[in-house]
Amino acid sequence: MTSALSGATIDAARPAPDPGGRPGRVRRSKPRNTLTPGAGLGLGIAMLWFSLLVLVPLSAIVATAAAGGWENYLNVLQDPQTWNALKLTVTQAALVTLINVVMGTVIAWVLVRDRFPGKAIMNVIIDIPFALPTVVAGLVLLALYGPNSPIGVHWAFTSKSVALALAFVTLPFVVRAVQPVLEELEADVEEAAASLGANRWTIFRRILLPSLVPAITAGAALSFARAISEYGSLVLLSGNRPNETEVASVRMLSFIENGSYASAAAIASVMLAVALFVIVVLDIVQRRVSRRG
């Protein structure tokens, strides 16, 4: 009797086939809202704060750029001086980001895996670009690479000075993103792979890289976003020469000083679009590499 009832219960629970002979589909239950009243209040406060600090200002930039009309927008972007400033900013920021991906990972590896005299001091010095005002950084770089350079390297007021300043202010991003991940990785897995005959490249590609890619891409995204928005160190070091060493942030300031806020907002909207594009591309690369690993 119990078996018959159990069988009937199971048959009743099964979806009935449709008239065409195809098996019925199981309806998926919709996920329920698990937010408690306290969590809902916290979410509302967080979204309000995020909107005030990020969404509203970004919307204001887009609205200001659109206020001048498409004609003014295109005229600003087609201006040779503006276009050269945008091109210099994006290319130098991309170049510095690639350098930071390599050198930042190497520095993080040395700080985590190696022991040497002065390691603690080096670990502190890495954070100096974070704490140092960018204008002071430009003054330091100008004293070292300017016309009276004590080492004989005269890069000030050239396009090389742009890359130099960006590399200085963005150095810690990849290092500090990769370093904690390396500290959490266990060496036992690498030793086991080596005992099974895997060479160093295979260990790095199949074991270490999938774990490091999210941190590397996060650091690269922060480095690129910081580089395209740099202003303080470049004011002193690059010389702001139009069509040669002028970057997008300086070009925007010149528009603001002339009262052309719509033109400045047009440049800002382009830089915002470039930053979002790079972040999306890095996220796609991160997912693919992690999946392959």
TrEMBL record:
For membrane topology, the record states: Multi-pass membrane protein
Matching InterPro entries, A to Z? CysT_permease, MetI-like, MetI-like_sf, Sulph_transpt2
Q: Which domain of life is it from?
A: Bacteria
Q: In what residue span(s) does the ABC transmembrane type-1 domain sit?
A: 86-282
Q: Which residues cross the membrane?
A: 37-70, 90-112, 124-146, 152-175, 207-228, 261-285
Gene3D superfamilies linked: MetI-like
Q: Which UniProt keywords apply?
A: Membrane, Sulfate transport, Transmembrane, Transmembrane helix, Transport
UniProt keyword Protease present? no
Subcellular location field: Membrane
Q: Where is this region: Disordered?
A: 1-33
User: What does this protein's UniProt record list under function?
Assistant: Part of the ABC transporter complex CysAWTP (TC 3.A.1.6.1) involved in sulfate/thiosulfate import. Probably responsible for the translocation of the substrate across the membrane. Part of the ABC transporter complex (TC 3.A.1.6.1) involved in sulfate/thiosulfate import.
Give the record's subunit note. Answer: The complex is composed of two ATP-binding proteins (CysA), two transmembrane proteins (CysT and CysW) and a solute-binding protein (CysP).
Q: Indicate the family of this protein.
A: Belongs to the binding-protein-dependent transport system permease family. CysTW subfamily.
- Designated name of the protein: Sulfate transport system permease protein CysT
- Protein species of origin: Nocardioides caricicola
Query: Source organism lineage?
Result: Bacteria, Bacillati, Actinomycetota, Actinomycetes, Propionibacteriales
Q: Which gene encodes it?
A: cysT
